[in-house]
Amino acid sequence: MNVSVRNFKFAIPISMLVLGIAFVLSLPAHAQGPTASNAACLVCHQNRDLIKRLPSGEPLSLLIEEKLFNDSVHGKKNIACVQCHTNISGFPHPTFVASDRRDVTLQMYTQCRQCHAENYAKTLDSIHTRAIAGGDRNAAVCTDCHTAHAVTAPDQPRSRIPQTCSQCHSAIYADYAKSVHGAAVMGNDNPDVPTCIDCHGVHNIEDPRTVQFRLQSPLICARCHANGQVMSKYGLSTAVFKTYVADFHGTTIQLFPANRDTPPRQAVCFDCHGIHDIRKTDDPQATVVRENLVKTCRKCHPDATENFPAAWVKHYEPSRDELPQIYFTELFFGGLTATVIVGLMGHIFLDFGRVVIKKIMGAKQ
Amino acid sequence: MSQELYERFSLHPRIQHLFLFVSFTVLAFTGLPQKFHNATWALWMVNVMGGIEFVRLVHRGAAIVLILSSVYHLIYAGYLLSKKGLRVWLPMLPSLKDFADVYQMVFYFLGLRKQKPLFDQFTYREKFDYWAVFWGMVIMGGSGLILWFPTFATQWLPGIIVPLAKTAHSDEAMLAVLAVVLWHLYNAHFNPAIFPFNPTIFTGNISKRRMMDEHFIEYARLSGARLQELGTDVEVQRPWNIIALSGLTGTLVILMIGTLFYVGFQSRVPEVPPAPTRVPVVISIPPTATPGAPGLAPAGTPTPAATIPVSPTRPGTTPAVAKEAPRLPANHTGRGVCQVCHAAGVSGAPMNPPDHVGRLDATCTDCHKPQ
């Protein structure tokens, strides 16, 4: 007992010391306080005339606006210039060779990986990175969306997300901004409607033209449109996904093998409702409003007549009020099946029971 | 044991049954996973059978076989009628005796009657089976063709006929499969009087013993015997054994469980993917300035607080630039890489003013608004 008490006297201070050391060691590099070197860099890099001319003829300004950087997420955390520009430790700098401005970006952006390894790893699977690997130098890299030195929260406000994507995908943005989703987010930063990244992902943006994406796309829409909490705010039905997969189109998509090269021909949500230009279903310009529906059906059913759109039950679940014809047909077959099966099973059990009883009686005799 | 045999089915009905048997089985196996598309076993089955599109192809192929064999049957029935008159049809039509037979049969099952009723050429069970298939063929064939050719069908019929056909096709299919699996399998295989297998529909022949037991009136008519003489001694002991008993019990239990599962699938399979929890993001918008897009402050703007609203549509914000920057030409809509031209003056593009050097592409449109 005495021994342990004596030992415990030191146990607490020692363990606190150990924990303290461990804590300091575990701190990320940039939390160890500001480095003085930023000021050193800015001695030269505040100079507006510091412009290099690249072999392509393009000028490359080496100006860093101090305020811009200090207001950025990195500036606020006192990240030092040399934490990204890792090869620079003094002057003169090591030689940096770049053919043009894009080449500078493509050489530098991988520095983000040092701290943002997880998001960087995600981008490796993205269509942008694959496009670069395929030779498209203009495909987006980290700094194209986030900027290099003026990085601020990319989703503040939310409408900034589509604007970021629109730098390259301007035609799609034009469609999106007119859509029911786009208008809500660009107009008043509605937190419920999807921006680009809610459907396409953020860093691991996949190719939306694949069979896989097409097969999964109804689930993307269902994330919100089958969610009662979100839909109740707007008086929208949550049965849209359920009724879709219950119909011929949706059943096919649901049962379609995921490993095919040819995409399913059956319609998914965006084939009828539009991809980026989705409008309210009662919008006169909507592809699914009654006046335009035949035209939409004819995209896949070219010989559809005016009767044909009524074959689509508009995501309604049959009830007495909506689609009574189908409701009562279901009721009829339900009653018929129950009656017939109960009758037949009763007959079978009676028949078999008689045989069993006779056997037992016969054995007793 | 040599037995006196009676011909019960000629070649044509036997062929028709064979076609029905094969095509029905194929249709059930290719159709059920489409009905229960939400179940995991459905996807598994479809993939095992070669994918949904191939399954549909097979389903429609089997449907053609079944429709053609139905047509074959109708032609055959019409031929019999023209050749032999109504007397070939009458034994197949439901009669008052059938209802009396059901009534007496139930009494017999309950031990309230010593003997089964005496049946003619077709018992009420066989008539039920025949007309159930007849009804089923009309419903399934008709609705199936509408589903196969929806645009063709709606050239004359209202559009609602398509979802109606789908409902009927799906529900009647369930009835047909249940009737075959429960009722037909019992009558043709697991009935202790039959077990393990009633070969009559394939061989066309029936033994004298079964003829006397199951179709006594017809037997008496054919053999010239008098009902009064034979009628009291027709109940023949059936050869059956413990295998039949256990086999039947097991099958019935499995079928019952299957039925319960069916009922369960109707209500329990989640049809909507689990919705991820969504936390609404509350975005506070300062009344005059938005710390939004990067690099907003032009070099010439003296006050550090002066920033420029991100979106021109945002209310309550005022641009902090004193003089409006030149607007973008109309043909510049959507361009996002300003410096490619304007840094060096490519193709006569106006060069950036000296104080613009180093500004980022992403910031140009903060001042230079589109038209």
Q: Could you walk me through the main structural features you see in this protein, from its secondary elements to its overall organization?
A:
The complex is a heterodimer of chains A (about 375) and B (about 375). Helices cover about 55% and strands about 0% of the residues of chain A. Chain A is built from 20 helices and two strands. Chain A has helices spanning about 1-25, 35-45, 65-70, 75, 80-85, 100-110, 115-125, 125-135, 140-145, 160-165, 170-180, 180-190, 195-200, 210-225, 230, 240-245, 250-255, 270-275, 290-300, 325-365; strands at about 50-55, 60. In chain A, strands 1-2 form a two-stranded antiparallel sheet. In chain A, a hairpin with a 5-residue loop joins β1 (about 50-55) and β2 (about 60). In chain A, α11 (about 170-180) crosses α12 and α16 (about 240-245) packs across α17. Chain B contains 14 helices and two strands. Classes of the chains: A mainly alpha (about 375), B mainly alpha (about 375). The interface between A and B is large, with 99 and 93 residues.
Topology, pairings included?
The complex is a heterodimer of chains A (365) and B (371).
Chain A: H1 2-26, H2 37-45, E1 51-53, E2 59-61, H3 66-71, H4 73-76, H5 81-84, H6 101-108, H7 117-123, H8 127-133, H9 142-146, H10 160-166, H11 170-178, H12 180-188, H13 196-200, H14 211-225, H15 228-231, H16 240-246, H17 248-255, H18 269-273, H19 290-298, H20 324-364
Antiparallel strand pairs in A: 1-2
Helix pairs in contact in A: 10-11, 11-12, 16-17
Chain B: E1 5-7, H1 11-35, H2 40-48, H3 52-84, H4 96-109, H5 124-148, H6 150-153, H7 161-190, H8 200-203, E2 205-207, H9 208-214, H10 216-223, H11 227-230, H12 242-268, H13 339-342, H14 361-367
Key traits:
heterodimer; A: 365 residues; two-stranded antiparallel ribbon; 20 helices; 53% helix; disordered N terminus; B: 371 residues; mainly alpha; two-stranded antiparallel sheet; 2 strands; 54% helix
